[in-house]
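Researcher: Let's do a round of design. I'm pasting the structure tokens now; please hold your answer until I've finished.
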């Protein structure tokens, strides 16, 4: 029989599969791991994802917006003992690249820390006053009506 006949493995095709007497058989998971993709550049996928992540720039508030925030902060300071519930929109700077994102927080105010420039909620969250772009809530509707 010659190799050119196309039957070159006929002599071994029906032999039993070899099982080593010295080594335990490899698990299916370990066998599959041999064929998993190889990442030559560790962290490359994470770097691509991070580069594609979009951040916003912090916008500058107008004088009217600053005045409105200042009025509302004064109302909060005056009523801090009542723990008014407020809705705050603020800018959170990104920790790894320029810019950040705008976030929204709802909570009861414990106090305004004027020394460190932050609002502290009753649950311990702290928001920097310089990052706040809007403060809202039902508390202001009633408080602003009485002050007019």
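Researcher: That's everything. Go ahead.
Model: Designed sequence:
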């Amino acid at each position: 029989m010659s190799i050119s006949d196309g039957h070159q493995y006929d002599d071994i095709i029906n032999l039993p599969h070899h099982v080593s007497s010295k080594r335990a058989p490899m698990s299916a998971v370990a066998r599959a791991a041999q064929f998993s993709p190889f990442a030559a550049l560790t962290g490359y996928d994470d770097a691509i994802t991070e580069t594609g992540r979009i951040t916003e720039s912090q916008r500058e508030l107008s004088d009217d917006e600053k005045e409105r925030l200042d009025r509302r902060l004064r109302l909060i300071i005056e009523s801090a003992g009542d723990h008014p519930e407020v809705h705050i929109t603020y800018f959170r700077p990104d920790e790894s690249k320029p810019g950040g994102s705008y976030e929204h927080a709802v909570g009861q105010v414990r106090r305004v820390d004027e020394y460190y420039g932050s609002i502290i909620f009753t649950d311990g969250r702290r928001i920097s006053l310089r990052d706040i772009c809007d403060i809202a809530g039902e508390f202001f509707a009633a408080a602003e009506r009485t002050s007019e």
